[in-house]
User: Fold this.
Amino acid sequence: MTVLARTVEVTRRYGDVLALDRVSLDIRAGELVGLLGPNGAGKSTLINLFVGLRRPSSGTVELLGGSPSDPVVRRGIGVTPQETGLPEALRVGEIVDFVSRHFPGAGAGTKNGAPKNQHKADLLERFGLTDLVKRQVGGLSGGQKRRVAVALAFAGNPRLVFLDEPTTGLDVEARRALWAGIKAFHDDGGTIVLTSHYLEEIEALAERVVVVARGSVLADDTVRAVRDMVGVHRVSMTAAELPELPGVLASSVEDGRINLVTSDADRLVVDLVRSGVPFTGLEVRPTSLEEAFLAITAKENAHV
Assistant:
């Protein structure tokens, strides 16, 4: 597949802070890539390099066959950064019109050749903004403003969209509505790179997962493969309390059940039985992406 964006041995420093360390990554046409990582992992820095907001300290960044610093090249992308500032006096429809005018082909380049007015209507409907078209931004809730910011990333009929924490501040219903809009763009052949702290969001949307921590790529594969590569399982039971058990990567209590994440479920169960602590309702199952992510980062930290 065609590579739309690429980093080659990219390093980025902010003074003494190493934000990215020799990262090489290809984003191919038609992909929906999820970037996972804790705060400070380098996800936003990577996106800022791709979209031309930052330059690498070393290495090269390519975007749509050119340089991210070229304004003409950047017309082919859409971006929603983590933080956005929208003119509060303007109405939602006016902001969409304003942004669309920066892209000469917006509207005429839609899949069915729809005129610009139809493109605008489709965009508003896709992201649940039709009822807000005449509302001033200053009167919108934080979640509504975030939906507008995400929709604007798609206003110019981009080939490639970067979404940095797109659903921050949204409730569950609004997040799922936004997911539908993102999926619709991808189903039409669009390419998307998104970051998220909501790991279920990555499971719901992404086909490919790139796990980043301390400026390095720890994993790059499908959601299923990321789970499988760490071989992590979740051991769940009901118990009053448990002793400290070896091999536990993470633990939590949910609805009265104790959940333990481990890379060796058989050994953990043996140690649990030998401890003599009474328990009931033992369950062992494969991990979620969140648990796999915890295991990957835990293994990386163990080598520090």
